Amino acid sequence: MTSPDTPDPAPAVSTTDRAALANLAGLHPRLPSPVQDVVDERFERRGVRLLLKRDDLIHPELIGNKWRKLAPNLAAAAGRTVLTFGGAYSNHLRATAAAGRLLGLPTVGVVRGQELADRPLNPSLARCAADGMRLHFVDRATYRRKTAPGTLAAVLRAAGAEGAYVVPEGGSNPPAVRGCRMLGEELAGRADVVAVACGTGGTLAGLAAGLGPGARALGVPVLRGGFLAADVRALQTEAFGGPRGDWSLDDRFHFGGYARTAPELEEFAADFERRHDVPVEHVYVAKLLYALVSLAEENAFPRGSTVAAVVTGRPFP
Predict the structure, then answer these.
(1) What are phi and psi of 22, to 5 degrees?
(2) What is the secondary structure of 49-96 as a DSSP string?
(3) Is 225 exposed, middle or buried (0-12, 13-18, 19+ CB in 10 A)?
(4) What global pTM score does this model have?
(5) In the predicted model, what is the mean pLDDT of the chain?
(6) For residue 121, is pLDDT > 50?
(7) What single DSSP character describes residue 252?
(8) Farthest-apart Cα atoms in the chain, separation
(9) CA angle 119, 122, 126 (to 5 degrees)
(10) How are beta strands 193-198 and 216-221 bridged, if at all?
(11) How far is the C-alpha of 117 from the C-alpha of 172, rounded, in Å?
(12) What is the pLDDT of residues 220-263, one digit of tens each?
């Protein structure tokens, strides 16, 4: 059994980031999020200490890195409609819809797959709709081109949201990356390696920037493709003007791609929950924890080192 320790005092952050979070202070986020010391023999026998950075406890509805990414974007929206993108099971769409309901902001979700428009909503999209998000379905070819200026303008017109504040898929843009820098600042000096599961790379980009010297950020992609390194570099350049921090990626633990799984992963997640009484989200967090156990077994972490895993979400529903 494990228990979170007392959160540390908030680290120093930029005036811009403080202002962004202040606009959401009425939602009472738990920041900094607690750090949980985990006693796990798979790490202990190799002389490695495991910590869990419990970002899943920041807020009951805007959990994990979704809070860190959305807070500065919602502040920048300044009351305008927020339009964003995602697939049929997108955590990001659900978080944006919940934020809209809590803050009284109109939200529009552009959903990949025109064929879904005439089908009953799955539980994830139904939650978005219940939270007041207006769903706009587009065909997959259009969705792939969504960042092209002409395509984006056409999507905004079709969705009736031409004046909306646009947040990209996964929420990863410069304000989000700067928001995630605070995650690194909260862990500075506490771990030698801080690991996070990656979808679009924004959390890793900010985390690495905030850690400071002597610590390394490790990203575990949950998608196939090997494209994230370039994306993380581009996000850091947009957010900070150039590369920041020491970071790397390990592409071996995606289990076939986004939301793909395997009996081995399902069994691992259930076992971790039993061992530590921590709910394990399967799309991101299970793959991260599986990767860390595998890396420990490979002696990838020197004896005496501390590894922190960022728990970015909870199981849904």
Answers:
(1) -60, -35
(2) EEEEE-GGGS-SSS-THHHHHHHHHHHHHTTS-EEEEE-TT-HHHHHH
(3) exposed
(4) 0.90
(5) 92
(6) yes
(7) G
(8) 59
(9) 105
(10) parallel
(11) 26
(12) 999 998 889 999 999 999 999 999 999 999 999 999 998 899 99
Q: How far apart are CA 204 and CA 223, in angstroms?
A: 14
CB 53 within 8 Å of CB 35: yes
What is the amino acid identity at position 39? V
Q: Is the pLDDT of residue 11 over 60?
A: no
Name the nearest CA neighbour of 63 among 25, 31, 88. 31
Which SS3 state, helix, strand or coil, does residue 195 take?
strand
**What residue has token string 């207006």?**
134
List Cβ<8 Å contacts ≥24 apart for 141-144: 143/85, 143/110, 143/112, 143/113
By the 8 A CB rule, do 289 and 268 touch?
yes
Token digits for 93? 């769409």
Do the beta carbons of residue 94 and residue 314 sit within 8 Å? no
CA atoms within 13 Å, Cβ hemisphere of 53:
28
Q: How far apart are CA 169 and CA 231, in angstroms?
A: 13
Mean pLDDT of 111-140: 97
- Side-chain half-sphere CA neighbours of 31 within 13 A: 28
Q: Are strands 35-38 and 49-53 parallel, antiparallel or unpaired?
A: antiparallel
Sheet arrangement for strand 247-249: 35-38, 49-53, 306-310, 193-198, 216-221, 247-249
Helix (H) / strand (E) containing 20: helix 15-22
